[in-house]
Amino acid sequence: QAHQDLPFEQLVEALEPGRSLSHSPLFQVMFNHQAERRASVETRLNGLSIEPLEWQSQTAQFDLTLNTNEQAHGIEAVLKYATDLFDAATIERLAQHWSALLRAIVAEPGQRIGQLPMLDDGQQQQLLAQWNPARLEQTVEQCIHQVIEAQAER
Q1: Domain residue spans in the chain?
Q2: Which residues are CB-neighbours of 17 under 8 A, at least 6 positions away?
Q3: Residue 147's Cα: distance from chain center in Å?
Q4: What are 45-97's pLDDT values in tens digits?
């Protein structure tokens, strides 16, 4: 926090990370939280009228960004993502996981973070029951690589 005003470009220059045109040099995922802004009132400065401009960019600067803003009515959250890396369904699932995690934190604020669930009950059931069927008993007549080879041939 002591160096939060340091320009990003200066930080990159000082650290000299390996550069690539395919991604940002230091990180690809960002979480950005802003405290509540003051009421948007018009300001006058030496005869100049100043007012905030609301603008929503449709271009993702990073692979994935979660922006949260404290508002009088609650917290607003916006996920921005690179559409060449993620589809809308994946981002929707990620948002559901984040929401489930927040609900779990509120329900059990003293719980260790590693113990908090990221899946709701329906997703948990789908993962355990539908996508992970009962074990199949295998005979030990072949080594594992032979089983894989036989499956690949099929």
Answers
A1: 28-38+59-111
A2: 25, 26
A3: 38
A4: 777 887 777 767 677 778 899 999 988 888 889 999 999 899 999 999 999 99
